[in-house]
Amino acid sequence: MDSRNLLSADQSRAARALLNWSRVRLAAKANLSEMTISDFENGYREPRPHNIAAMRHAFEDAGIIFTLEGTPSLARPEGDSGLATDNRMWRRRQRKA
């Protein structure tokens, strides 16, 4: 199986923590329901391969790199405020909607 389509519940939680994303935010970025994310991370069900790929793609677009050991890490260097700015802008857009 293509490693780009692999993502565990632990990796998802860790990547969300690195990005300071809620399940709602990941769901929006991956174009999935919050229930899909929640059920996956809580071990209630395994999402379809294209949903796993969508989550992983959302993380990678945000700068997450999945190492060979499977541990997610943030690609941006320490002190890069781009992530914080992106999060603030997203929150502003959500409040206006």
Helix-strand layout with pairing:
Blueprint: H1 9-19, H2 23-30, H3 34-41, H4 49-61, E1 64-66, E2 72-74, H5 82-96
Antiparallel strand pairs: 1-2
Helix pairs in contact: 2-3, 2-4
Region (Disordered): 75-97
Domain HTH cro/C1-type: 13-65
Organism: Mesorhizobium neociceri
Low-confidence stretches: 77-81
| Terminal residue distance | 39 Å
Order of helices and strands: HHHHEEH
CATH domain class: Mainly Alpha
CATH superfamily: lambda repressor-like DNA-binding domains
CATH topology: 434 Repressor (Amino-terminal Domain)
So how many helices? 5
Strand order of the largest sheet: 1-2
Share of residues in strands: 5-15%
Cα-based radius of gyration, to the nearest Å: 13 Å
Instruction: Count all strands and give the number.
Output: 2
Q: Structural class of the secondary structure composition?
A: mainly alpha
Largest pleated sheet? 2 strands, antiparallel
Mean pLDDT: 80
Organism: Mesorhizobium neociceri
Protein name: Helix-turn-helix transcriptional regulator
Domain HTH cro/C1-type: 13-65
GO molecular function: DNA binding
Task: Summarize the structure in words.
The longest helix is centred in the C-terminal third of the chain and has 15 residues, at 82-96. This protein is mainly alpha-helical and 97 residues long. Helices cover 57% and strands 6% of the residues. Strands 1-2 form a two-stranded antiparallel ribbon. The chain has 5 helices and 2 strands, in the order H-H-H-H-E-E-H. It is globular, with a radius of gyration of 13 Å. It holds the Pfam family HTH_3. This is Helix-turn-helix transcriptional regulator.
